[in-house]
Design a protein that fits this description.
membrane, transmembrane helix, transmembrane, 9 helices, mainly alpha
Length: 243
Protein backbone atom coordinates (compact mmCIF):
# COMPACT_ATOMS: atom_id res chain seq x y z
CA UNK A 1 0.00 0.00 0.00
CA UNK A 2 2.85 2.37 0.88
CA UNK A 3 4.55 1.61 -2.45
CA UNK A 4 1.33 2.31 -4.37
CA UNK A 5 0.82 5.61 -2.55
CA UNK A 6 4.43 6.62 -3.19
CA UNK A 7 4.11 5.80 -6.90
CA UNK A 8 0.88 7.77 -7.16
CA UNK A 9 2.49 10.75 -5.44
CA UNK A 10 5.49 10.64 -7.75
CA UNK A 11 3.25 10.34 -10.82
CA UNK A 12 1.16 13.31 -9.72
CA UNK A 13 4.30 15.36 -9.06
CA UNK A 14 5.53 14.64 -12.59
CA UNK A 15 2.09 15.50 -13.99
CA UNK A 16 2.05 18.77 -12.04
CA UNK A 17 5.51 19.76 -13.30
CA UNK A 18 4.61 18.96 -16.89
CA UNK A 19 1.29 20.81 -16.88
CA UNK A 20 2.83 23.82 -15.13
CA UNK A 21 5.69 24.02 -17.64
CA UNK A 22 3.55 23.66 -20.75
CA UNK A 23 0.79 25.73 -19.25
CA UNK A 24 3.13 28.69 -18.84
CA UNK A 25 4.53 28.21 -22.35
CA UNK A 26 1.12 28.08 -24.01
CA UNK A 27 -0.17 31.04 -22.00
CA UNK A 28 2.83 33.15 -23.08
CA UNK A 29 2.35 32.06 -26.71
CA UNK A 30 -1.33 32.97 -26.50
CA UNK A 31 -0.45 36.38 -25.06
CA UNK A 32 2.09 37.09 -27.81
CA UNK A 33 -0.31 36.00 -30.55
CA UNK A 34 -3.14 38.11 -29.14
CA UNK A 35 -0.88 41.17 -29.06
CA UNK A 36 0.64 40.55 -32.50
CA UNK A 37 -2.29 42.03 -34.43
CA UNK A 38 -2.61 45.28 -32.45
CA UNK A 39 1.19 45.66 -32.36
CA UNK A 40 1.37 45.35 -36.15
CA UNK A 41 -1.37 47.95 -36.63
CA UNK A 42 0.32 50.29 -34.15
CA UNK A 43 3.91 50.11 -35.39
CA UNK A 44 3.79 48.96 -39.03
CA UNK A 45 0.56 50.33 -40.50
CA UNK A 46 -0.46 53.80 -41.66
CA UNK A 47 -3.14 54.26 -39.02
CA UNK A 48 -0.98 56.80 -37.13
CA UNK A 49 -2.49 56.08 -33.72
CA UNK A 50 -1.15 58.47 -31.03
CA UNK A 51 0.34 56.87 -27.93
CA UNK A 52 -1.99 58.95 -25.77
CA UNK A 53 -4.98 57.28 -27.45
CA UNK A 54 -3.54 53.83 -26.78
CA UNK A 55 -2.93 54.68 -23.11
CA UNK A 56 -6.41 56.16 -22.72
CA UNK A 57 -8.03 53.09 -24.25
CA UNK A 58 -5.93 50.79 -22.08
CA UNK A 59 -6.89 52.63 -18.89
CA UNK A 60 -10.57 52.59 -19.88
CA UNK A 61 -10.49 48.80 -20.35
CA UNK A 62 -8.31 48.21 -17.29
CA UNK A 63 -10.75 50.14 -15.10
CA UNK A 64 -13.31 47.40 -15.76
CA UNK A 65 -11.31 44.25 -16.33
CA UNK A 66 -8.26 44.72 -14.07
CA UNK A 67 -10.41 43.81 -11.09
CA UNK A 68 -11.58 40.62 -12.82
CA UNK A 69 -7.97 39.69 -13.55
CA UNK A 70 -7.48 39.40 -9.78
CA UNK A 71 -10.90 38.16 -8.73
CA UNK A 72 -11.37 35.38 -11.31
CA UNK A 73 -8.17 33.40 -10.54
CA UNK A 74 -8.92 33.59 -6.81
CA UNK A 75 -12.48 32.44 -7.41
CA UNK A 76 -11.81 29.60 -9.86
CA UNK A 77 -8.59 28.10 -8.49
CA UNK A 78 -10.10 26.24 -5.48
CA UNK A 79 -12.47 24.38 -7.81
CA UNK A 80 -10.33 23.88 -10.91
CA UNK A 81 -6.79 23.40 -9.63
CA UNK A 82 -3.59 24.52 -11.42
CA UNK A 83 -3.71 22.40 -14.60
CA UNK A 84 -7.36 23.18 -15.36
CA UNK A 85 -6.71 26.87 -14.73
CA UNK A 86 -4.32 26.99 -17.68
CA UNK A 87 -6.93 25.27 -19.84
CA UNK A 88 -9.75 27.51 -18.66
CA UNK A 89 -8.03 30.82 -19.31
CA UNK A 90 -6.85 29.69 -22.73
CA UNK A 91 -10.33 28.50 -23.77
CA UNK A 92 -12.55 31.16 -22.14
CA UNK A 93 -16.24 31.09 -21.15
CA UNK A 94 -15.17 29.89 -17.71
CA UNK A 95 -18.15 30.90 -15.59
CA UNK A 96 -20.87 29.78 -17.98
CA UNK A 97 -19.26 26.67 -19.50
CA UNK A 98 -16.02 25.31 -18.04
CA UNK A 99 -16.68 25.82 -14.33
CA UNK A 100 -20.13 24.15 -14.43
CA UNK A 101 -18.63 21.24 -16.39
CA UNK A 102 -15.91 20.77 -13.78
CA UNK A 103 -18.38 20.97 -10.89
CA UNK A 104 -20.72 18.41 -12.45
CA UNK A 105 -17.83 16.01 -13.12
CA UNK A 106 -16.47 16.37 -9.60
CA UNK A 107 -19.91 15.86 -8.07
CA UNK A 108 -20.55 12.80 -10.27
CA UNK A 109 -17.49 10.98 -8.91
CA UNK A 110 -17.74 12.36 -5.38
CA UNK A 111 -14.42 14.24 -5.53
CA UNK A 112 -13.78 16.62 -2.64
CA UNK A 113 -12.68 20.20 -3.46
CA UNK A 114 -8.93 20.78 -3.40
CA UNK A 115 -7.96 17.14 -3.88
CA UNK A 116 -6.00 15.52 -6.69
CA UNK A 117 -9.05 13.63 -7.82
CA UNK A 118 -11.07 16.82 -8.17
CA UNK A 119 -8.26 18.48 -10.15
CA UNK A 120 -8.06 15.58 -12.59
CA UNK A 121 -11.85 15.54 -12.93
CA UNK A 122 -11.78 19.25 -13.77
CA UNK A 123 -9.14 18.70 -16.47
CA UNK A 124 -11.12 15.90 -18.11
CA UNK A 125 -14.38 17.84 -17.86
CA UNK A 126 -12.85 20.90 -19.52
CA UNK A 127 -11.46 18.72 -22.33
CA UNK A 128 -14.95 17.31 -22.91
CA UNK A 129 -16.57 20.75 -22.74
CA UNK A 130 -14.08 22.14 -25.26
CA UNK A 131 -14.72 19.30 -27.72
CA UNK A 132 -18.50 19.72 -27.42
CA UNK A 133 -18.12 23.48 -27.84
CA UNK A 134 -16.00 23.16 -31.00
CA UNK A 135 -18.40 20.74 -32.66
CA UNK A 136 -21.40 22.83 -31.61
CA UNK A 137 -19.84 25.95 -33.13
CA UNK A 138 -18.97 24.04 -36.29
CA UNK A 139 -22.51 22.74 -36.75
CA UNK A 140 -24.81 25.42 -35.30
CA UNK A 141 -22.72 28.47 -36.23
CA UNK A 142 -20.42 27.50 -39.07
CA UNK A 143 -22.90 25.37 -41.03
CA UNK A 144 -26.40 26.27 -39.82
CA UNK A 145 -25.76 29.71 -38.29
CA UNK A 146 -27.19 31.95 -41.01
CA UNK A 147 -30.23 29.74 -41.49
CA UNK A 148 -31.00 29.56 -37.76
CA UNK A 149 -30.74 33.33 -37.34
CA UNK A 150 -33.10 33.85 -40.29
CA UNK A 151 -35.87 31.65 -38.86
CA UNK A 152 -35.70 32.73 -35.17
CA UNK A 153 -38.17 35.58 -34.46
CA UNK A 154 -36.61 38.85 -33.29
CA UNK A 155 -38.67 38.79 -30.08
CA UNK A 156 -37.17 35.45 -29.06
CA UNK A 157 -33.67 36.71 -29.82
CA UNK A 158 -34.20 39.76 -27.58
CA UNK A 159 -35.49 37.62 -24.71
CA UNK A 160 -32.56 35.22 -25.11
CA UNK A 161 -30.04 38.06 -25.02
CA UNK A 162 -31.66 39.51 -21.91
CA UNK A 163 -32.24 36.41 -19.78
CA UNK A 164 -30.02 33.50 -20.89
CA UNK A 165 -26.78 34.73 -19.31
CA UNK A 166 -28.33 35.51 -15.88
CA UNK A 167 -30.09 32.13 -15.99
CA UNK A 168 -26.79 30.33 -16.65
CA UNK A 169 -24.95 32.22 -13.91
CA UNK A 170 -27.80 31.58 -11.47
CA UNK A 171 -27.63 27.85 -12.21
CA UNK A 172 -23.85 27.92 -11.67
CA UNK A 173 -24.33 29.53 -8.25
CA UNK A 174 -26.80 26.81 -7.26
CA UNK A 175 -24.36 24.15 -8.49
CA UNK A 176 -21.54 25.66 -6.46
CA UNK A 177 -23.68 25.85 -3.33
CA UNK A 178 -24.73 22.21 -3.70
CA UNK A 179 -21.15 21.18 -4.47
CA UNK A 180 -19.37 22.75 -1.49
CA UNK A 181 -22.21 21.89 0.94
CA UNK A 182 -21.39 24.80 3.24
CA UNK A 183 -24.70 26.54 4.11
CA UNK A 184 -22.97 29.07 6.35
CA UNK A 185 -20.61 30.25 3.58
CA UNK A 186 -23.46 30.29 1.06
CA UNK A 187 -25.56 32.52 3.32
CA UNK A 188 -22.58 34.83 3.91
CA UNK A 189 -21.93 35.13 0.16
CA UNK A 190 -25.58 35.88 -0.64
CA UNK A 191 -25.83 38.43 2.18
CA UNK A 192 -22.64 40.22 1.16
CA UNK A 193 -23.70 40.29 -2.49
CA UNK A 194 -27.12 41.68 -1.60
CA UNK A 195 -25.68 44.39 0.67
CA UNK A 196 -23.09 45.50 -1.88
CA UNK A 197 -25.40 45.48 -4.93
CA UNK A 198 -28.59 46.78 -3.30
CA UNK A 199 -27.18 49.22 -0.73
CA UNK A 200 -23.60 50.25 -1.48
CA UNK A 201 -23.68 50.48 -5.28
CA UNK A 202 -26.72 52.84 -5.43
CA UNK A 203 -25.20 55.06 -2.72
CA UNK A 204 -21.55 55.12 -3.84
CA UNK A 205 -22.27 55.42 -7.55
CA UNK A 206 -20.78 54.13 -10.82
CA UNK A 207 -17.13 54.38 -9.74
CA UNK A 208 -17.74 51.89 -6.94
CA UNK A 209 -19.76 49.68 -9.31
CA UNK A 210 -16.58 48.86 -11.26
CA UNK A 211 -15.09 47.33 -8.11
CA UNK A 212 -18.26 45.81 -6.66
CA UNK A 213 -17.40 42.25 -7.73
CA UNK A 214 -13.96 42.45 -6.14
CA UNK A 215 -15.44 43.86 -2.94
CA UNK A 216 -18.03 41.06 -2.76
CA UNK A 217 -15.40 38.35 -3.30
CA UNK A 218 -12.92 39.77 -0.78
CA UNK A 219 -15.54 40.46 1.90
CA UNK A 220 -17.01 36.99 1.45
CA UNK A 221 -13.57 35.40 1.78
CA UNK A 222 -12.76 37.34 4.94
CA UNK A 223 -16.13 36.77 6.59
CA UNK A 224 -16.23 33.10 5.60
CA UNK A 225 -12.81 32.60 7.19
CA UNK A 226 -13.69 34.51 10.35
CA UNK A 227 -17.13 32.89 10.78
CA UNK A 228 -16.20 29.37 9.65
CA UNK A 229 -17.02 26.24 11.62
CA UNK A 230 -13.71 25.71 13.44
CA UNK A 231 -14.63 22.17 14.48
CA UNK A 232 -14.66 20.94 10.84
CA UNK A 233 -11.54 19.10 9.66
CA UNK A 234 -10.57 19.45 6.01
CA UNK A 235 -8.52 16.95 4.05
CA UNK A 236 -5.38 18.17 2.35
CA UNK A 237 -4.56 17.63 -1.35
CA UNK A 238 -2.52 14.54 -0.57
CA UNK A 239 -5.06 12.92 1.74
CA UNK A 240 -7.15 11.42 -1.04
CA UNK A 241 -6.16 8.68 -3.43
CA UNK A 242 -5.26 9.78 -6.93
CA UNK A 243 -7.82 7.49 -8.56
Amino acid sequence: MATTTSSATAAYAAYDRTTSRWGRITMIMGLLLSLAGPAYLLFFSDLDIPLSTVVTAYLAVAAVFAVLAIVEPLTYFPVLGPAAMYQAFMIGNIANKLLPSAIVAQAAIGAKPGTRRSELAAVMAICGAAVVHIFSLLIFVGILGTWLVSIVPAAITEVAQLYIFPAIIGAVIVQLAAYVKQPRITIIALAVGAVVQLLLVPVLGPTFRNFATAVVVLLTMVLAWMLRNRSTLHAGPGDEALL
